[in-house]
Design goal:
The protein is of the alpha+beta class and about 140 residues long. Helices cover about 25% and strands about 40% of the residues. The chain has a single domain (about 5-135), classed as Nuclear Transport Factor 2, Chain: A (Roll). It has helices at about 5-15, 45-60, 125-130; strands at about 25-35, 40-45, 60-75, 80-90, 100-110, 115-120. It has a six-stranded mixed β-sheet with strand order 2-1-6-5-4-3.
Amino acid sequence: MASANVEFVRSIYTAWERGDWSSAAWADPQIEFVIADGPVPFRTTGVRGMREGWRSWLSAWEGFGMRAEEFRELDDERVLVLHRYSGRGKSSGVELDEMRARAAIVVHVRDAKVTRLVGYNDREHALADLAPASRPHAAEPPP
């Protein structure tokens, strides 16, 4: 049976998979939002910064969507979600489906709020960052 944190993260994804990005009730007010790789890595703090960052990302795509493939509980506070992106780049015309856009998010949960969300456009980067051999540093943008 899935843990409370996995079920909590799954409930967030249910809305995202419908294309509903409107709620941030699940986020801690001081959430750290990180895009760790890809063309424009960044880091921000707070719900407002997260919304602005995500809005900027979404604005580059037509028909953007994501579909969770697997939820993995990493420990008492972290859930790894492996997912796929779909959509078409507005300026590039790139089709994410054709690129087999396999991505990941590491969700940090404490007291039924997401305190940190680290997105990876390439799930292999996420898996490498989570592997003990990849320490001491993670592939995240500088502060």
